[in-house]
Specification:
Layout (H helix, E strand, L loop, with lengths): L1 H4 L20 H13 L11 H15 L3 H14 L9 H9 L6 E5 L6 E2 L33 E5 L2 H10 L1 H6 L2
Helix pairs in contact: 3-4, 3-5
């Protein structure tokens, strides 16, 4: 996707002024500018970029349910064996870099038996409207005033930003006809 989004014309001819393609909108242009910033190599001579390493680290976290401390240890190991000394110091840096791509996940609470989502109009409910069971874990008397903890949570990736990223790639968009 990154290569398709950043594809340069293969000839050095002057641009066609009768081109019917519209320039990208502001959001798309911001995305392209972000890609230009993050495709820089991790260090001079490296074949991987900061973005690719960040995505691979987060994939490790997701696939094997690694804690943040494990990924920070791996990132520190990268720092020890490569000539880079100032990039990807903390897992926070990795998450921040990947979050700039605009593919944020939404957390949605749902009932334990999966009969309803606490979303949109039902987002303010504290009990299931079908079984009248609680949405949150019961607070223990004497604990601090923390936010209530939902019994079940799912993560939703909105479809519009995902489709926008797919169609940003010239190779994939041409196959979507």
């Amino acid at each position: 996707m990154v290569c398709g989004a950043l594809r340069q014309p293969e000839t050095s001819e002057a641009p066609n002024l009768n081109n019917t393609e519209a320039p990208p909108n502001e959001d798309t242009q911001r995305f392209y500018n972000l890609l230009l910033d993050v495709i820089e190599p991790l260090y001079e001579g490296a074949s991987d970029s900061k973005l690719s390493i960040s995505v691979r680290l987060l994939a490790c976290k997701s696939n094997w349910n690694d804690p943040d401390q494990c990924l920070e240890y791996i990132a520190k190991m990268f720092l020890d064996v490569t000539p880079i000394k100032d990039r990807l110091r903390k897992i926070y840096d990795v998450k921040r870099l990947v979050s700039k791509l605009g593919l944020e996940a939404k957390r949605i609470d749902y009932y334990v038996d999966a009969c309803m989502l606490y979303y949109n109009n039902d987002g303010a409910l504290t009990k299931c409207k079908f079984y009248n069971k609680p949405r949150y874990h019961v607070k223990i008397v004497g604990t601090s005033n923390r936010k209530p903890v939902p019994l079940k949570v799912m993560f939703y990736l909105p479809i519009i930003p995902r489709l926008q990223r797919i169609f940003a790639s010239m190779q994939i968009a041409s196959q979507m006809e």
